[in-house]
Every structure is written in C-alpha cells, then in structure tokens.
Amino acid sequence: MKDQDITERIIAMAIKIHSRFGPGLLETAYRKMLFSLLVNDGWIVEEEKNLSIQFDGILIEQGYRIDLLVDNKVVVEVKSVEDLRRVHYNQIMTYLRVGNYRTGLLINFNVLSLKHGLRRVSNDRMLENKNKI
Fold first, then answer.
1. 78 forms bridges with which residues in the sheet?
2. What one-character DSSP code corresponds to residue 27?
3. pLDDT by residue (tens digit) across 20-39?
4. Strand arrangement of the beta sheet that strand 45-55 belongs to
C-alpha cells in the first residue's frame, strides 16, 4: 500500500477522534485512541517505538521514541500544543532520517479544526537516494 493511502486513513481516524473530543486532552490520550483505532482497523502499529542512533561506533539504544509507526512506513507524531513550532517539525524529520522512513504525519489535536493541525512531511533525502538507485 502506498504511503499516501496510509496517511489518508490515519488522517480520517484522527478527524474521527477530534470530532468526538475536540481540543484539550493530553497528547497521551489522543495517541492511545489513534493507536487503538488503527489496530482495530487491521494496521500493524508500533506505539512509542524506540529508535536507536549510531555515531562513530557509539550506539545510543533509546535515543528517540516514535509516537506511532504505522505499517513500518509512516511515522506519526502526536501533539497537543498551542501551536506547532519548528522544533516539532525538526523532531519528526529526525525520526524520518534516523529511521530511514520516507513519510510522516505531524498531528496537533489542540486546534479548533484539525485541518489546521495536520502536517504531512517527507524525507527528501531518502527520496533522492532512492531515485539514484
């Protein structure tokens, strides 16, 4: 299945959650609900997946933790913040680069309309490297 199809399904489920509860819950609650909906829909989902980092022979076992990894393809970072900031975008881009994933969703549930809290991101470096092969 294509990454775009997966992200569209994730977004539909996020909208379902947001329509029911709106803004104001903790990030953990939104993440758990999204995880449950995805699993119940038949997706393979890892919650709070550890992401190791290697640098100059040094292994950092639990350097980062991805909120949700769907179908081993799409990284989902769930937020419940006043505004998405550059640091949130940098965070998901780091997960994509370090984990060698192509597509991510940054979802901020703390908005009146979820369309204002959705960002689809891609690992351009990975796309460039795949095109060279």
1. 107
2. H
3. 999 999 999 999 999 999 99
4. 45-55, 58-70, 74-79, 103-108, 118-122
